Amino acid sequence: MELNICDECKSEYYVHSSVMSGLCPECAHQLYGYPNCSHIFIDGRCTRCHWNGQTSTYMKRGKGGKEKERVIEN
Ligand SMILES: [Zn+2]
Ligand SMILES: [Zn+2]
After folding, report:
1. How many domains in the chain?
2. How many Å apart are CA 41 and CA 58, to the nearest integer?
3. Is 68 part of a structural domain of the chain?
4. Which ligand is located closest to the Cα atom of residue 46?
5. Residue 38: nearest ligand to its CA?
6. 11-16 — which CB contacts under 8 Å span 24+ positions?
7. DSSP symbol at 36
8. How far does residue 60's CA lie from ligand 1's centre (Å)?
9. pLDDT digit string (tens) for 13-65?
10. How far, in Å, is the centroid of ligand 2 from the Cα of 4?
């Protein structure tokens, strides 16, 4: 299946799964109110749209700003 990179969250997604060119179904939903994918995550990726489950920093800020402090440390 054909993959594209989302302009907003930089995740790969299946082109056919999104109504918007350049945005994954999640970002199209968050930013423009289009129907979202009913994500089914296996190994960190949605099997339906191939989204990686990571919202962009722009959208994290919009949701209260706490998310950005959650840094993954090794
Ligand atoms: Zn996206
Ligand atoms: Zn999905």
Report:
1. 1
2. 23
3. no
4. 2
5. 2
6. 11/50, 11/51, 11/52, 11/53, 11/54, 12/50, 12/51, 12/52, 13/49, 13/50, 13/51, 14/48, 14/49, 14/50
7. P
8. 12
9. 999 999 999 999 999 999 999 999 999 999 999 999 999 999 876 666 655 44
10. 14
